[in-house]
Amino acid sequence: xxxxxxxxxxxxxxxxxxxxxxxxxxxxxxxxxxxxxxxxxxxxxxxxxxxxxxxxxxxxxxxxxxxxxxxxxxxxxxxxxxxxxxxxxxxxxxxxxxxxxxxxxxxxxxxxxxxxxxxxxxxxxxxxxxxxxxxxxxxxxxxxxxxxxxxxxxxxxxxxxxxxxxxxxxxxxxxxxxxxxxxxxxxxxxxxxxxxxxx
Length: 199
Ligand code: IMP
What we know:
Layout: E1 9-12, H1 17-27, E2 33-36, H2 52-67, E3 71-79, H3 101-112, E4 118-128, E5 134-145, E6 161-163, H4 175-181, H5 183-196
Parallel strand pairs: 1-2, 1-3
Antiparallel strand pairs: 3-4, 4-5, 5-6
The structure holds inosinic acid.
């Protein structure tokens, strides 16, 4: 049985302001006050895990240990089966220190060549308590990669990702529509069902 979340305060174990805002918005309907790891001055752990789940767990546990509060962390990325799963957990790193996702998308396209263009976005959410209890949830959205990239909305690899059943890439789609079907939304729905449902 998953553990229910019964507190009213939670640390968002991320130093990425976009993610912090997105997660705070998802938690708002549950009357949970959120505080970001950065606001508490918590250090950013090294992401040494070999899976999305392992990295989400490691980040959530580090923040719960350091703050004494429950903590929620997210780890996500683009998985291309024809590239053996790359860029996967290295999705952010492919953009380099300048966070240049035009370059990262061009690398995906170059390495893909004429191979199979299916891809998925994956998100893992880790919820850790100060006693080191941990729950992890995974969400995925499947689609295909297009070239050239399309659309100015979204972030990261969104402009080259065409979700199944849509004629618009994640770079073109209304953000509210993306948030209904995204990998992060799907992982969050599992977390709600398991840990927040009766709030
Ligand atoms: P993380 O901060 O280590 O989880 O890195 C996640 C990286 O995966 C981001 O920097 C993006 O490059 C990519 N990514 C994750 N989710 C999305 C998404 O919804 N759209 C586009 N790119 C994403």
